[in-house]
Specification:
This protein is mainly alpha-helical. Helix content is 78%, strand content 0%. Helix 2 packs antiparallel against helix 3.
Length: 82
Amino acid sequence: MAVLSLVWGILALVGMIVAFFPCLGSLNWLNIPFAAIGLIISIIAMNSAPESDRGKAIAGVVLCGIAVILGTFRLIAGGGIV
């Protein structure tokens, strides 16, 4: 499950980067819930993983957290959330 959280975090971060391009900011409306679900999965994986896989789960938490925070900032800055 730790590998799943890492992959989910990478996909959320890639989606967030794509949504930073002009005219693609509305992609954040899909990417933020995707990253939030990944954040929940990563936290569960971090709590249930053995010590050897815990680093992958922590990386998933960090990547999904960055995607949620920066995606929300992009929506606010672009006028998507009024």
